[in-house]
Design brief:
It is a single chain. This protein has about 450 residues and is mainly α. Helix content is about 60%, strand content about 5%. The N terminus and C terminus are likely disordered. Its EC number is 7.1.1.-. It catalyses: a quinone + NADH + 5 H(+)(in) = a quinol + NAD(+) + 4 H(+)(out).
């Protein structure tokens, strides 16, 4: 009976989400707010491109862009104008309709997700031309699911671009992006579910309001780390930029694109970076709330236009994290990418979700904090012991295998291939002594032995 009562109370609280302040704006104010969201994304993208080039140049002891505008700040604008003025090519074997629509399908969903991200508190309405309105375009009871849906639709643009180009490398890049999205969306959804359990809502404004006392990065650190890894994989950024790795796919899904269509793919990538950073700020970093030291001694830090400043600073710090990864880590192999997604992130996210659900259930049952910590620690120790036993027996089975079994020949298929997990390359033979080497010179085999030279035709070289 107690559980049924608590479940009914939770459902009642969820049903009483106050979203009445949204949907009351006149049409012209909705247009202004939509244009502001678009301008915020575009200006952040223009700044992020220049900032990335400058930061990476600083990391690599280079100068970076310094010609266009003061301190080179107009470099990304100059690049955009250059791309729009370049010749627009369409390859002969392309499916022209899908080939043209693919960049649009990739770019539009990237802009749509920002509609439900709060830039400020919903109850602290600002005045625009005499009308009071919240600092958010709109909100939904399932706002986070809306963000997941738009992020999932954007991947179709990359897949369609790879397929419609009529070329091998773009097709491989599109398939890689599809597999990468499937691998990382599951872990991202599990990280979101932990936030839903603590906030009791999927509304973005309600989630930020529930972080009034403590940000979720402190309560749910594992969920934050999982989301950070998945958002890098979701945006196809280094070190997870496998869909466009120039080392083995020339340029990946956008190899056959040029001019404005190539610029739209680049725009979609950076807009996605801003969007996932804004979502991370909303879910784990308190959203528009001021940091802890500021909010304690300044009562007006979370009122007026100040929340937008705190929100922008947090987003820029996460964008710097993207840039830092690109300038630090090399690109991973594709099998390492899949292994991280399926064997590490998904199991860890599911176990962590079960742990968070158990803690919430124990709290609802009335257990105190020390009892909850005891139960959770006992479960963690039990899982650790089970994993150690499994690893011990698996190691024993591997040691019982004879040495001759499972020999690996890298040239068995006619071309060199890397070893699979559990296999090892044969030892590299030592370099032969000089008198045993054979030199191929002009189609003849010359041998050098003890200072005596022969030209391969016989005789003593006299």
């Amino acid at each position: 009976m107690m559980q049924l009562g608590q479940l009914a109370a939770a459902q009642t609280a969820l049903a009483q989400e106050d979203l009445s302040m949204f949907g009351r704006d006149p049409w012209w104010l909705v247009v202004i707010k939509a244009v502001f969201c678009f301008a915020f994304l575009m200006l952040t993208v223009l700044f992020s491109i220049v900032w990335e080039r400058k930061v990476v140049a600083w990391m690599q002891l280079r100068i970076g862009p310094n010609r266009h505008g003061p301190w080179g700040m107009l470099q990304s604008l100059a690049d955009g104008i250059k791309l729009m003025l370049k010749e627009d090519l369409v390859v002969r074997r392309a499916d022209k309709l899908v080939y043209v629509l693919a960049p649009i399908v990739a770019a539009i969903p990237a802009f749509m997700a920002i509609a439900v991200v709060p830039f400020g508190p919903a109850d602290n309405e600002i005045s625009i031309f005499g009308h009071r309105t919240p600092m958010q375009l709109t909100d939904l009871p399932i706002g986070i699911l809306y963000i997941l849906a738009t992020a999932s639709v954007g991947i179709y643009g990359i897949v369609l671009a790879g397929w419609s180009s009529g070329s091998t490398y773009p097709l491989l890049g599109g398939l890689r992006s599809c597999a990468q999205m499937i691998s990382y969306e599951i872990a991202m959804g599990a990280a979101f579910a932990s936030v839903f359990l603590y906030s009791g809502s999927m509304s973005t404004s309600t989630i930020v309001e529930s972080q009034q006392n403590r940000w979720y990065i402190l309560l749910l650190p594992v969920s934050f780390l999982i989301y950070i890894a998945t958002m890098v994989g979701e945006t196809n950024r280094a070190p997870f930029d496998m869909p466009e790795s120039e080392g083995d796919l020339v340029g990946g899904f956008n190899t056959e694109y040029s001019s404005i269509k190539f610029a739209m793919f680049m725009l979609a990538e950076y807009v996605n970076m801003v969007t996932v950073s804004a979502v991370a700020t909303t879910l784990f970093l308190g959203g528009w709330r001021a940091p802890y030291p500021i909010s304690t001694f300044w009562e007006g830090a979370n009122h007026g236009w100040w929340p937008m400043l705190w929100f922008t600073i947090k987003v820029q710090l996460l964008l710097f994290f993207f840039i830092w990864l690109r300038g630090t880590l090399p690109r991973v192999r594709y099998d390492q990418l899949m292994k991280l997604g399926w064997k590490v992130l998904i199991p860890v996210s599911l176990v962590w979700l079960m742990l968070v659900a158990s803690v919430r259930a124990l709290k609802n049952e009335g257990y105190n904090f020390s009892q909850i910590v005891l139960y959770v620690a006992g479960g963690a120790v039990a899982l650790l012991l089970i994993s150690l036993l499994v690893d011990f027996f698996r190691r024993g089975e591997n040691e019982e295998e004879p040495d001759g079994e499972g020999a690996f020949d890298p040239m068995a298929g006619g071309f060199p291939v890397p070893p699979l997990p559990g296999q090892s390359l044969p030892p590299v033979p030592r370099r032969r002594p000089r008198h045993q080497r054979e030199l191929i010179v002009s189609g003849r085999v010359d041998t050098v032995s003890d200072g005596n030279e022969t030209d391969g035709k016989g005789g003593d070289g006299a």
